[in-house]
Design brief:
Blueprint lengths: L3 H15 L3 H10 L4 H25 L5 H24 L2 H21 L12 H21 L4 H11 L5 H25 L5 H25 L1 H24 L1
Helix pairs in contact: 1-2, 1-9, 2-3, 3-8, 3-9, 4-6, 4-8, 5-10, 6-7, 7-8
Length: 246
């Protein structure tokens, strides 16, 4: 079981910088024999504390725009609820094919647009509120329906649509993720789908990964976040292809 600890540390490290930590941690929990729902619940439980640590570090360093984060959180709650309900009726492969087609274009955009997220171009308050709510709604629906890479897509959306500087986009993404993770973790705890014997030490590993990762992101800025986002996008592409070919 010890093999899971460095993987959860790595997941926290990656997630604090570019999102997508669940692409590493969730398979790790399943690899040690946890059933799918128990793996999901334990993953949410252990990630809450680590996400909270990285959120606090971004907040303390001024890398968050609260208005955008609050509107996005409200939109995400509505979107996630709708997405999870749609998932009952729609074949997941439809969205899988869409993401499979979109991911290479996202990667190409990040590679070619060198100044992406380099400066803050914040919108007027009214437009920012609408765009932030739409980001939360759409990405929240994606999270409820499918899920992998949600944090990464939040960072991209905050940067591309709201004009936020990359680190502020990371801080906002962490805040929205933290709120949704708390709600999900409580649901899993109440339904008995958290293995605390594994989850508590993994939470400590996640805290360490998030603390180190968020510190490096704050110190190095876009030059670290951009390549890490490309790595997460590549990992997401590999996961989707693997799921389709199994």
């Amino acid at each position: 079981m010890w093999m899971i600890f460095p993987l959860v540390f790595l997941a926290g490290f990656v997630d604090s910088i570019a999102g997508g930590g669940g692409l590493i941690s969730l398979p790790a929990y399943m690899a040690v024999g946890l059933p799918a729902h128990m793996a999901l619940g334990t993953n949410k439980f252990s990630s809450v504390v680590g996400t909270g640590i990285s959120t606090v570090r971004f907040v303390r360093n001024g890398f968050i725009q609260w208005d955008a984060a609050i509107y996005s959180f409200i939109g995400a709650l509505l979107g996630s609820t709708a997405g999870s309900r749609i998932a009952v009726y729609v074949d997941e492969r439809i969205l899988t094919y869409f993401i499979l087609a979109a991911v290479p274009f996202i990667a190409l955009f990040l590679i070619l647009k060198k100044d992406f997220g380099a400066s803050d171009k914040s919108l007027p308050p009214a437009r920012m509120a609408v765009y932030a709510a739409l980001v939360g709604l759409v990405v929240g629906a994606y999270d409820g329906f499918f899920g992998p890479g949600t944090g990464t897509f939040l960072i991209l959306a905050f940067t591309a649509l709201l004009g936020l500087e990359m680190l502020t986009a990371c801080g906002n993404a962490k805040a929205v993720n933290l709120a949704s993770n708390i709600a999900a973790a409580l649901t899993f705890i109440l339904s008995g789908n958290v293995n605390f014997r594994i989850g508590i030490p993994c939470a400590l590993c996640g805290v360490l990964g998030n603390y180190i990762g968020s510190g490096l992101a704050i110190k190095n800025g876009t030059k670290l976040v951009r390549p890490m986002m490309l790595a997460v996008i590549a990992l997401l592409l590999i996961k989707i292809l693997w799921d389709l070919l199994k």
